[in-house]
């Protein structure tokens, strides 16, 4: 049975209205990332960090999965083999489209975590600095997000999956952020066929055996159709 590992980045959700880091005028441009996406920023001003993620959580809740998300969910259902999505995204559009094998290496906006004891739970739509942890009652609630300077989730399992993959596909990612930028090299060394599906060539496009470029809502469903005809 074919084993496919798919890495997705912000580009797959852009057509659902969720901006990437590089979008001019997007939500990321209105904040200093050092203040809202680092442990140090949270320690300095937790209210600002919660304001930022409350806005992003509302934005994500209003977004609708697009054709690319739906195509990957269809691939998982119909493909005779294993299809794993490793996503850099913190939205839940893959799950809402129907995908079940999804690993969020940067955490999830829909989850909260206690900075004191590490407990995690479903986040309310709006979070505040004085929200008590349901486990230890400490007012140390933070989004369950991997910030700059923190170690991504699931990394040991991801490396194992990459080395067992027959096909590795990167969708909607710039190829500029490590460790995800190294996934193609690791999968390729282990013998996987590697494919980039992106709006434009990424910084690591030369590491892929094959690349196709265009809107994710067009090129991802087309690739899935090809895979299901094989």
From TrEMBL:
<feature type="binding site">
    <location>
        <position position="117"/>
    </location>
    <ligand>
        <name>Zn(2+)</name>
    </ligand>
</feature>
<dbReference type="InterPro" id="IPR026591">
    <property type="entry name" value="Sirtuin_cat_small_dom_sf"/>
</dbReference>
<dbReference type="InterPro" id="IPR029035">
    <property type="entry name" value="DHS-like_NAD/FAD-binding_dom"/>
</dbReference>
<feature type="binding site">
    <location>
        <begin position="172"/>
        <end position="174"/>
    </location>
    <ligand>
        <name>NAD(+)</name>
    </ligand>
</feature>
<keyword id="KW-0862">Zinc</keyword>
<dbReference type="GO" id="GO:0008270">
    <property type="term" value="F:zinc ion binding"/>
</dbReference>
<comment type="function">
    <text>NAD-dependent lysine deacetylase and desuccinylase that specifically removes acetyl and succinyl groups on target proteins. Modulates the activities of several proteins which are inactive in their acylated form.</text>
</comment>
<dbReference type="InterPro" id="IPR003000">
    <property type="entry name" value="Sirtuin"/>
</dbReference>
<dbReference type="GO" id="GO:0005737">
    <property type="term" value="C:cytoplasm"/>
</dbReference>
<dbReference type="GO" id="GO:0036055">
    <property type="term" value="F:protein-succinyllysine desuccinylase activity"/>
</dbReference>
<comment type="similarity">
    <text>Belongs to the sirtuin family. Class III subfamily.</text>
</comment>
<feature type="binding site">
    <location>
        <position position="216"/>
    </location>
    <ligand>
        <name>NAD(+)</name>
    </ligand>
</feature>
<feature type="binding site">
    <location>
        <begin position="88"/>
        <end position="91"/>
    </location>
    <ligand>
        <name>NAD(+)</name>
    </ligand>
</feature>
<feature type="binding site">
    <location>
        <begin position="9"/>
        <end position="28"/>
    </location>
    <ligand>
        <name>NAD(+)</name>
    </ligand>
</feature>
<protein>
    <recommendedName>
        <fullName>NAD-dependent protein deacylase</fullName>
        <ecNumber>2.3.1.286</ecNumber>
    </recommendedName>
</protein>
<feature type="binding site">
    <location>
        <position position="53"/>
    </location>
    <ligand>
        <name>substrate</name>
    </ligand>
</feature>
<dbReference type="InterPro" id="IPR026590">
    <property type="entry name" value="Ssirtuin_cat_dom"/>
</dbReference>
<feature type="binding site">
    <location>
        <position position="136"/>
    </location>
    <ligand>
        <name>Zn(2+)</name>
    </ligand>
</feature>
<dbReference type="InterPro" id="IPR027546">
    <property type="entry name" value="Sirtuin_class_III"/>
</dbReference>
<feature type="domain" description="Deacetylase sirtuin-type">
    <location>
        <begin position="1"/>
        <end position="230"/>
    </location>
</feature>
<feature type="binding site">
    <location>
        <position position="114"/>
    </location>
    <ligand>
        <name>Zn(2+)</name>
    </ligand>
</feature>
<feature type="binding site">
    <location>
        <position position="56"/>
    </location>
    <ligand>
        <name>substrate</name>
    </ligand>
</feature>
<dbReference type="GO" id="GO:0036054">
    <property type="term" value="F:protein-malonyllysine demalonylase activity"/>
</dbReference>
<keyword id="KW-0520">NAD</keyword>
<feature type="binding site">
    <location>
        <position position="133"/>
    </location>
    <ligand>
        <name>Zn(2+)</name>
    </ligand>
</feature>
<dbReference type="GO" id="GO:0017136">
    <property type="term" value="F:histone deacetylase activity, NAD-dependent"/>
</dbReference>
<dbReference type="InterPro" id="IPR050134">
    <property type="entry name" value="NAD-dep_sirtuin_deacylases"/>
</dbReference>
<dbReference type="GO" id="GO:0070403">
    <property type="term" value="F:NAD+ binding"/>
</dbReference>
<keyword id="KW-0808">Transferase</keyword>
<feature type="active site" description="Proton acceptor">
    <location>
        <position position="106"/>
    </location>
</feature>
<keyword id="KW-0479">Metal-binding</keyword>
<keyword id="KW-0963">Cytoplasm</keyword>
<dbReference type="Pfam" id="PF02146">
    <property type="entry name" value="SIR2"/>
</dbReference>
